[in-house]
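Lab notebook, bench 4. Still working through the backlog of constructs that have no structural model yet. Next entry is a single chain of 838 residues. Request: give me the structure tokens for it.
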Amino acid sequence: MGSLFRSEEMTLCQLFLQSEAAYACVSELGELGLVQFRDLNPDVNAFQRKFVNEVRRCDEMERKLRYLEKEIRRDGIPMLEIPGECPEAPQPREMIDLEATFEKLENELREVNQNAEALKRNYLELTELKHILRKTQVFFDEMADPSREEEQVTLLGEEGLMAGGQALKLGFVAGVILRERIPAFERMLWRACRGNVFLRQAEIDTPLEDPSSSDQVYKSVFIIFFQGDQLKTRVKKICEGFRATLYPCPESPADRREMAMGVMTRIEDLNTVLGQTQDHRHRVLVAAAKNIKNWFVKVRKIKAIYHTLNLFNLDVTQKCLIAECWVPALDMETIQLALRRGTERSGSSVPPILNRMETIEDPPTYNRTNKFTSAFQHLIYAYGVATYREVNPAPYTVITFPFLFAVMFGDLGHGAIMAAFGFWMCYKEKPLQAKKIDSEIWNIFFGGRYIILLMGLFSMYTGLIYNDIFSKSLNIFGSSWRNNYDGSTLQSNQLLQLNPDSKDYLQYPYPFGIDPVWQLAEANKIIFMNGYKMKISIIIGVFHMLFGVCLSLWNHLYFKRRISIYVEFIPQILFLSLLFFYMVLLMFIKWTTYGATPGHFGSQDPEIVKTSAFCAPSILITFINMMLFKHDKNTRPQCDDFMFSGQMFIQKLFVIVALLCVPIMLFGKPYFIMREQKQRARQGHQPVEGNAENGTAGGAPVPASGHHDEEITEVFIHQAIHTIEFVLGSVSHTASYLRLWALSLAHAQLAEVAWNMLLRKGLMSNDYQGGIFLYVVFAGWAAISVSILVLMEGLSAFLHTLRLHWVEFQSKFYGGEGYLFQPFSFEIILDSAGQAEE
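Model written out:
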């Protein structure tokens, strides 16, 4: 329980391990996850450490596994999750077997892929040739048509058709090109050949698979007619530039038919071979998919062990490894047992040695958490990691955080929606975790599921206190007010008010929360709720800050900082109590002193009038006058000038004492430090008080230098900053808690606007058209309620609550200058690796 309210006591230990037992012992410590190793070779390059070759081998194995995983994912083969517990880290000798397995798998897969790629390329070429033979036959058939002779005349001219009494034949090349390159290809041919070529092209309807990237590409067949070798060379160069593939195409139709039949036969044979190759590849990948998760875990564990062993030092004999590590003091026995298990597994006869060390370093901060408290602890860590062994605010935040949120978000309906969402995430926790949803926003919500559940439940409670459910009220116990006006008066006067100093009020309060009659009080509902929520905000804020200052006393007592109790805690608690806690007392005095007197309603008796609401003073004006040492005469002659006898004297005394606390906070600590320095100079050694001021308590380390090494000027500046921050902060922080009132008011008014502008109009509509209208309006109202009033307003209230805890509460006692305990843990390493993959 100590680690919940204060971080674990940590110990720096020195660990001696035999070389043959080091691997097994570190493996056991990794499974345990309770040891943070220090780097004893900070000046040694990463490539010059003892186990760098083993780390490289692990990197190579990881590379091969990633290659296998990529191929498995590409084929859409499911990878089996690890059933039960994760496999243990394999022994060093098993690394050779794993390397051989991965090498064999990689080589086999690469060979299969190369063969498959070569076959696919061959298949692509044959397919393209098949399309060329088909399309060119169509072209030649068209050219054989007598009506097409005009094209030849246009291309060669009438004189060129006959040379030496013989008809000239055109040369041609045929090939395949990407469809999107056709327009540019055609333009280039026209310009380069000056219009002396004839291009025909036809699209291939079905997409073809690119063997390199496995992408589906669309291509077109083309045939280019030309005359002469010079144009032929030019055309081929242009085709090469546009990466068009040229294929041989016979001139005679018989040869083309014969070639087409041969191509079809080869395509069928290739299909058979390709199918067998793909089946073999699939079998190899399915076999690998069954074990790949296990292999990843094993390789990562081996790599983590050797990476940790690189932090160790070798002794002179090269037979023993020496390590330094931070361990929780309560877990020393557990760690000893783990080391013993590791030694037994390795077969070593020499037991490991774990010695405690004295150190002047600040230990890391370690707070044990579970799935419920971890979210609240992370809220604290977001502000800063606690200084070693100082008070941990997380257990108090578990209550105060959802409560302050609920004060701003108080609505039974909206709170129920939020609580239902949080409860669903908690109830479906394991299935949702197993899904591993890759969404940052979802992971934030899921990580804070218990915070959301508590915020929803607390909001339901404050919603009952405010008697607010979707801006409406519940009349559970019956109102404590009665209407004494007749019907005509009610209808003619919209600004009527019920008077508590009459029989309108039954003189007993509504049993729980706000009376539902206020829902009907359009004239002064906001005035009443403003006054109520404003005062409640100040009361909660003052008690919250006083609690923070009291926690600082717990810190001073634990670290035995006696001087800080006298010159920091006592002046701070006096300053807050005499000014702001006194203001809270005035509120309670006003509530209990002034009000209606049963049996004397409307009485003009001076004694009765003095305690009536007519004479109730303003707390804010009273507090301002108190700070200014002045008093305004009551303008109402029937009323007393003061709320109680001796009020003026007590107020002056409180302000004077509070002001006297400021110089004590400002000069107290520097004065005691100067006195200690003089005393030490006379005695020649550091006194016990100096040790206490430096923080020696309950296993806490002694810092290398105390106050005697600090310049007194720096101490003065440091103390002046803290004093000014506290004094001015007390005023601004108290006012800052008014955000509880402001956000609560805004939330209630937004809910009322949404009801009046949407749902109320839908409920007032008649006939069947009204039902359709209500259906549409309800959808809009529900969408606005969830998106704006629950999500956006909820986020706003969450951020304001976070600020109240970080600034107003934690600034009173929380240093947040520590660093986090980061143990060597396989679980953490594997989780972070899994998240990086996703």
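Notes after review: The mean pLDDT is 87. The radius of gyration is 42 Å. Flag for follow-up if needed.
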